[in-house]
Amino acid sequence: MSKTRAALEQARGALAGNRPDLARACLTRSFDELVADVQAAAMAGDLASAAGDYRLANRFFDSVLTREPNLVGVRFNRAATARFLGELESAEKDYDAVIAVDPADSEAWLNRSHLRRQTSVRNHIAQIETALGGDHPAWQHRMRLLYALAKEREDLGHVAQAFAALDAATKLRRCHLDYDIDDDLAALAAIRSTFTSSTLASMGEGFSGAAPIFVLGLPRSGTTLVERILEAHPDVVSGGEMSAFARALEHCAKASGFRGGGKHALIPFSKTLDPVMLGEFYHALASAGRDPSLHIIDKLPLNYLYIGLIAKALPRARIVHVHKPPLAVGWGMFKTLFVQGYPFSYDQVELGRYIAAFHRLMDHWSRELPGRIHHVFYDDLVRDPTTGIRELVAACGLDWNEDCLSPHKGSTANTSHSAAQIREPIHTRGLSGWRDFAPYLEPMRKAMLAEGLVTE
């Protein structure tokens, strides 16, 4: 086996073993050998990206594109890593080049539209509308172009045209989903009825050797901003949107005799798990390759499903819930094309019902676990960042650090839907944007009204 192939296999093995740090070390150590071959360098760039080292990934991609500038797949990947790093102009140039060579790459169109706020003198609306007039057979292609058009129309204040494009895009996405909202709502209700204060008290205490910070809430609620604020602290490192707790839960359930049956069987079974085993296994997954002296941020929004188990398995964990007004967060989700998950977000009525059920669940956790959840109201945070950030830092058990006031200055990568916006200072610009679309959000509002979440 050649040195380059051996290095690639070693990096893949490290990633498969949940050791991205070892993958990064291997790729760095073998850099010169790997860049000598274009194909190996391209694969190494993908592996470095998967390991979370986007600067290393871009070094590999740069080496490829200097020799083979028309490899659009590599150029697309370099654009993505540049976006994660906040190098937005470089990302836009690469997306432009990808689209010029392959106009059918609708992901490039959509990602490019989200890189910046479009203006009347600098936008891609005419290009997108021309592309929509083509005859590409894939529904996904048309859907992404419609999302891109909606984003750019919204930036320019073209409310009716933006919503028309978005409405078409979401309907296209929803009709290709096999999803039952009632199944999800039943699961949320089952979590509430299973994890009562008496049940939680009977579970005993878990693993006290870790103090992670869980930042959670609905997507588009401001969790990324809170993550960046905390990540600016020298005693904190972010693990991003980790699936570590769900994986730990699955592992411990199987080890404890769970024989399957889906989430409706797992919910009641999970209250029988040993909280020490669950906490230890979570910590092993979350901390692998990271400095054990630092607090690790776990920013997976869906961790709101597991707050009861988190509180018992990790008694020193800090839990931060980020809020926005229901219609504001609903609008943010409705206009987002998620890579995976959140299938309820493509239909206004389903979205309204889910958000109401989410609020019932969070009210339940706050009632059953008094004092365990620190609530951050996004609107208050951005209107008075100094006060809100000081309260947040204290609630997470951290000493005060001035760097937390300037999260936009952070140089770490971010892969969320907010990867472009977080490079700006904290602002209030987007607080009322959803109100422009309020007349079009009546189905969502009425669904929330029927659930008692909003009033007339």
How would you sum up this structure, described in words?
With 456 residues, the chain is mainly α. The protein has 3 domains: 1-80, Tetratricopeptide repeat domain (Serine Threonine Protein Phosphatase 5, Tetratricopeptide repeat, Alpha Horseshoe); 103-176, no CATH class; 181-450, Rossmann fold (3-Layer(aba) Sandwich), CATH 3.40.50.300. Helix content is 56%, strand content 5%. The longest helix is centred in the C-terminal third of the chain and has 21 residues, at 348-368. The radius of gyration is 23 Å and the shape is globular.
What fold name goes in the CATH topology slot of the largest domain? Answer: Rossmann fold
Proportion of residues in β-strands: under 5%
Question: Major sheet, described briefly?
Answer: 5 strands, parallel
CATH architecture of the largest domain: 3-Layer(aba) Sandwich
Helical percentage: 55-70%
Protein traits:
3 domains, Rossmann fold, 456 residues, 5% strand, Serine Threonine Protein Phosphatase 5, Tetratricopeptide repeat, globular
How would you summarize the topology of this molecule?
Blueprint lengths: L2 H14 L3 H10 L1 H5 L2 H13 L3 H12 L6 H13 L3 H14 L4 H8 L11 H8 L6 H17 L3 H16 L6 H14 L2 H6 L10 E4 L6 H9 L4 E3 L5 H12 L7 H8 L4 H13 L7 E4 L8 H7 L4 E6 L2 H9 L13 H21 L4 E5 H6 L1 H11 L46 H9 L6
Parallel strand pairs: 1-3, 1-4, 2-3, 4-5
Helix pairs in contact: 1-2, 1-4, 2-4, 4-5, 5-6, 6-7, 7-8, 8-10, 9-10, 10-11, 12-16, 12-20, 15-17, 17-18, 19-20, 20-23
